[in-house]
Amino acid sequence: MKRYSIWALVVLLLIAxxxxxxxxxxxxxxxxxxxxxxxxxxxxxxxxxxxxLAIRLIWPTELDLPEVASIETESGE
Length: 77
What we know:
Layout: H1 2-16, E1 28-29, E2 33-34, H2 35-58, H3 66-74
Antiparallel strand pairs: 1-2
Helix pairs in contact: 1-2
């Protein structure tokens, strides 16, 4: 279920990234930042959080085993 949740977040981010509705909006947020730029910053932050969740929840643990790293070091790779 966790894997499907992460994939759903990725698809949601892909859809939300297509922000055609803010291209012509000249509203300034905090007096200096265009609202479209703030929206893109929010999408970037959401993507970083999604990637963090993907690593913490569904990253395969067998890739992090210490004996795999020691075998590669001993063989000279």
